[in-house]
């Protein structure tokens, strides 16, 4: 009888260990996926920031009277470069995108600039980066959803609270995001 | 959302399992064929025939599996999408890879005025997406993105591996039955043992005729579900149904003129839309009718 009870207890402990290891690893892996997703976003944000000084050089010659817009872009870039942490950087990235949007809108009034090969290349490249940022953000949020589903449902919830892991916030996606970067230049 | 996730994991599992089943059946078919052929010619050589069959199939299977992407790309005369002209295309593919958290596939372009695309490779790390020049010309950004998302889903779901193995299987069975049927003309005279051999002879012929047909039917039945899944995956990735719907409509309109580029039957199941013109409509289709796909997308 004693052996039976002992065997049962050992079995229970074994099952618990297996389940624990499974959930521990799962929560860690899903958490890592979010970090990885973020670094993908960051790569794109950096690429975009790197393009801007050269874009400004091209644009300045044509848009002498639009200093306000140009300064805003430069400032937004500077604050992105300085920004630290996911939320701050994401916000700075959105800011920069908005200022670029107004820059390209203003550029519509300068036919010479619009016809400039360099400018067209920048516009295309920035719009592709914008698409990629949208996709990486989407993957980030998918990863967060997966993670949150695991740490907020039973039994993942128990292990998560033991590991002091909490729900993670989603990245905000401005509603028109997917539309914005498509600066169509029909020639 | 979570339903969608579950079903694509299911699909990946199914593909992994089916891939194994397929590999095993490839070997079974080889062994059965070798045995039947041995019985027809000389049962004394059964063992040697079997050894030969197994060695041959090992070399063939491993070889074609390993180089399947190059074989497929070469058979449609595709070239790598390099240079400034295809930068946007490469960026689109990269974006979709980022969106699905997968390695970036290599991008190829094939010369054809048809609107079509396919994905191939043995796994996501060695994957290729190939689109026609016609697709680049005729599809809008959104539509092309949807098409690329469809191919991306084939890669993520491991459809590419399974379809590659199917092509290997189709190839091997057709080679064997070809050998067998041809050798009948030559072997006829030398057989003078009569009696029991006649049964095996009949069995051999039946097998030789049926096997390719069975393989083909299996292949077709399975790849239709894959197409629906890939359409759904594309929608999940691009977050809109409109791109895929209008892409399919364009393909359909372009199609009514008839596909212009001939494509080998073995690679046909890889394509976005069936590239082989056919007279029979239902069971021989590798792809569901475009109208049915559009209808399914509209209901999403």
Description:
The complex is a heterodimer of chains A (187) and B (300). Chain A is mainly alpha-helical. Chain A has a single domain, classed as LemA-like domain (de novo design (two linked rop proteins), Up-down Bundle), CATH 1.20.1440.20. Chain A is built from six helices and no strands. The longest helix of chain A has 59 residues, at 2-60. Chain A is rod-shaped and about 95 Å long. Chain B is α+β, with helices and mostly antiparallel strands. Chain B has one domain (2-298). Chain B starts with a helix and ends with a helix. Mean pLDDT of chain B is 78; it is low at 1-6 and 278-284. The chains are: A mainly alpha (187), B alpha+beta (300).
Give the topology string of chain B: H per helix, E per strand.
Answer: HHEHEEEHHHHHH
So how many helices of chain A?
6
Number of domains of chain A: 1
Quaternary structure annotation:
heterodimer
Return the CATH architecture of chain A.
Up-down Bundle
Summed up, the domain count of chain B is 1
Strand content of chain A: under 5%
Our Rg estimate of chain A from Cα atoms comes to 24 Å
Overall SS class of chain A: mainly alpha
- CATH superfamily placement of chain A: LemA-like domain
| Low-confidence segments of chain B | 1-6, 278-284
Provide a concise account of the structure shown.
Chain A has helices at residues 2-60, 67-82, 86-107, 111-115, 117-152, 156-162. Chain A is mostly helical.
Please write out the topology.
The complex is a heterodimer of chains A (187) and B (300).
Chain A: H1 2-60, H2 67-82, H3 86-107, H4 111-115, H5 117-152, H6 156-162
Chain B: H1 2-41, H2 46-75, E1 79-80, H3 87-100, E2 106-110, E3 117-121, E4 127-132, H4 133-138, H5 141-156, H6 159-187, H7 197-238, H8 242-255, H9 290-298
Parallel strand pairs in B: 2-4
Antiparallel strand pairs in B: 1-2, 3-4
